[in-house]
Specification:
This protein is of the alpha/beta class. It has six helices and nine strands, in the order ββββαββαβαβαβαα. The chain has a seven-stranded mixed sheet with strand order 3-5-6-4-7-8-9, with helices on both faces. The longest helix is centred in the middle third of the chain and has 18 residues. The N terminus and C terminus are likely disordered. Bound molecules: guanosine-5'-triphosphate. The site of guanosine-5'-triphosphate has 24 residues, from helix 1.
Length: 243
């Protein structure tokens, strides 16, 4: 596994693969900055993407972090990982974004990644009812079982809004579901970019407004960088140049 520093970033890049049955996560650095300490942050948040395979979790993340979209994308193998820095007023917030595979065969593997997440994005596809049904049949149960933060913020996202003519899940159904289960809610499109930034902005804002979570994300900066706990945060992301 090679580590690369091009002097622009201090964070090594790694490609994801399964080796001897152990998941290796793929990390993609999307922050801009140089080796001048500009990667300092006030809050460090862990956000998890969950939902059925093909609903567009990876596409939403790629739209958010790189502002691009691919019409054909391969399914996530295990878990993928990205970083993004956002500003909230005076505060710099570093987001660790964990993209889990929707395929059932990875369920055991991905379950450990709920641990410590302050925000969970639950994604369904507005053109496939089964993905909406799975929210209560599968994903809320997974959150209930594996999430370690009681007041973790849930954001429900109905993706593929650009396919309005193929829609089978109404906006009202989304709103009602979100109300019933205490989620924030948005419909979005990774393809057209509609509401993608807003989705993460609102989630981050809500985490910051929740005292227990906000205090937690601040403290993480000091305490969470423990080697050997990749599901929390990679130990190398300290914001100082290693080259
Ligand atoms: P897994 O990795 O298997 O869990 O899937 P995923 O939820 O990450 O889905 P992914 O982002 O790979 O997208 C699946 C397919 O849907 C791809 O062909 C995407 O191009 C397409 N797609 C994703 N978002 C949108 C969208 O907003 N609109 C349209 N029309 N297609 C989308």
């Amino acid at each position: 596994m090679s580590e690369i520093c091009n002097c622009k970033f201090s964070i090594p890049r790694r490609e994801g693969f399964l080796f001897a049955g152990v998941l290796q996560t793929r990390r993609t650095e999307t922050e801009t900055g140089s080796c001048d300490g500009s990667m300092e942050f006030d809050h460090l948040m862990k956000i998890l993407m969950v939902g059925d395979s093909g609903v567009g979790k990876s596409s939403l993340l790629i739209r958010f972090t790189s502002d691009t979209f691919a019409d054909m994308s391969s399914p996530t193998i295990g878990v993928d990982f990205k970083l993004k820095m956002v500003n909230k007023g005076e505060k710099r917030v570093k987001l660790t974004l964990w993209d889990t595979a929707g395929q059932e065969r990875f369920r055991t593997l991905t379950s450990s990644y709920y641990r410590g997440a302050q925000g969970i994005v639950l994604v369904y596809d507005v053109t496939r009812r089964q993905t909406f049904t799975s929210l209560s049949d599968v994903w809320l149960k997974e959150i209930e079982r594996y999430s370690t933060k009681e007041d973790c913020i849930k954001m429900l996202v109905g993706n593929k809004l650009d396919l309005e003519s193929e829609r089978v899940v109404t906006k009202k159904e989304g709103v009602d579901f979100a109300r019933r289960h205490g989620c924030l809610f948005l419909e979005a499109s990774a393809k057209s970019s509609t509401n993608v930034k807003l989705c993460f902005d609102e989630l981050v804002q809500k985490i910051l407004e929740t005292p227990s979570l906000s205090a937690d994300t601040s403290a993480l900066r000091q305490n969470l960088l423990r080697p050997g706990h990749p599901q929390d945060f990679p130990a190398t992301n300290r914001g100082s140049c290693s080259c």
